[in-house]
Amino acid sequence: MPEVRRVYDASPAGSADRPDLVVVGAASRDMASDDPRGWRLGGGAAYASLAAARLGLRVGCVIGVDQAASVASELGLLAAAGVLIHRVPLRNGPVFENIERDGHRRQRWLSRSDAVPVAALPDEWRGARGWLFGPVAGEVAPEWAAIPEAGACMAVGWQGLLREFAEDGQVERVAPSPSPLLEAAGLVCASVDDLAPGVGLADLRALAPRATLVLTAGDHGGTGLRHSRLFHYRGIAAGRVVDPTGAGDVFLAALVARWLQNGEVATPRALRFAAAAGSCAVEGAGLAGVPNQAGIAARLRVSALPTR
Question: How many CB atoms within 10 Å of residue 202?
Fold first, then answer.
């Protein structure tokens, strides 16, 4: 097998303050009756940052936070993993009530989100080799698409661009629409539950012409497009589902980690690794479920054992 080219220099000169990966998005507060605060910290930026850091990347997180989220104890998990946290104060941050029924999620919104401005990016983080934009409520402005330099690895979690906040409090799925973020991305992920009825991979390809597309379906696996070629991957079942929130963000972060570390853009090996990461993530509540390298390796070993 030919040697896989490494995308970034593990110790590039003059980059002591520059992350390998910059993650951008808002922290959400997800209602939780078993938490004394009545909510847990979530959002794609938080989950993806923690997962990528635990997989060995130097991570910088530009994270929008409302007043309550800015002092959330969960941010300590990110800091302990080595994430460089750059808080961006928001007057309004996203607040959701997640309702799980028959393996599918419905959401109600209690607060929308202000935008995370490009001006919030620390100057020393420009030039990073990896970028992951993980909006939960459309808070990542289109101007962010122009920030990654040519040749950088850029991934987008599509979920937050596929939501509409109805006046009755429901979060509705909307048809995908053009976005500079999608046009510039090299990797785009979404869940089949995020897509409006009748939307297929061909519709998505037109909006993200440069990207490898991955559509996830939990432990059922998923499908995707790479250079107009359709592919499938198998899912990996969790031992026990405690909280499915954030599993897709962990999946995407694992794919990005493999892209940066090994040059693999959603290859079969990278997809299997990401599927294992996502299956581990659902076994804990909130960010506590985000796995490390050892946990994912153990899941891969178990999933490879023959069934009796």
Answer: 9
Contact 73, 35 (CB under 8 A): no
> Which residues fall within 8 angstroms of residue 86, CB to CB, at 6 or more apart?
60, 61, 62, 63, 120, 121, 122, 125
Phi, psi at 210, each rounded to 5°: -95, -10
Beta-bridge mates of residue 157: 189
Which residues are CB-neighbours of 59 under 8 A, at least 6 positions away? 19, 20, 21, 22, 23, 49, 52, 53, 81, 82, 83, 84
How much is the pLDDT for 203?
84
Whether 205 shows a pLDDT value over 70: the answer reads: yes
pTM of the shown model: 0.92
CATH 3.40.120.10 describes domain 21-301: no
